[in-house]
Amino acid sequence: MDLDDRGQQPRFLIHDRDSKFTHAFDALFRGEGVRVIRTPVRAPNANAHMERWVGSIRRECLDRLLIFNRRQLERVVRDYIRHYNTQRPHRALELQAPDPSPPVHGNPAPTRIRRRDILGGIIHEYEAVAA
Questions:
Q1: DSSP letters of 55-100?
Q2: Which contiguous run of DSSP H or E holds residue 53?
Q3: Each residue of 36-89: pLDDT tens digit?
Q4: Domain enclosing residue 115, as ranges
Q5: Is residue 60 part of a domain?
Q6: Closest CA to 104 of 74, 77, 124, 129
Q7: Most buried by CB count within 10 Å: which residue of 4, 50, 91, 122?
């Protein structure tokens, strides 16, 4: 149970008390050494970080696309997650990305900006390019 290619194992699983999260579901994660935390009853703000992320992906991505199948949905979510973690500015991080791409060493004053369209042009990423 690794996350991405980083070789990190999750330490916590936080979920609400929905009936779809059975004891067998929790036991599966506990068996892997993951601590399962259930949010309090009738406390929608208890998992505010995840609610914020779900709102972001819906507003910025999924509400603008027509998804035809699971494979397409997985590709779209994977591309958005990469954008969210490496390019998208976050206010709490002083407008930096959580996992920014390494800085380009070279010409300190690039003269051109390159735009890369993500998800068919719904999202744009920009990077400085040395002339």
A1: HHHHHHTGGG----SHHHHHHHHHHHHHHHHHTS-BGGGTTB-SSP
A2: helix 48-60
A3: 999 888 777 777 878 888 898 999 889 999 999 999 999 999 998 888 888 877
A4: 43-129
A5: yes
A6: 129
A7: 122
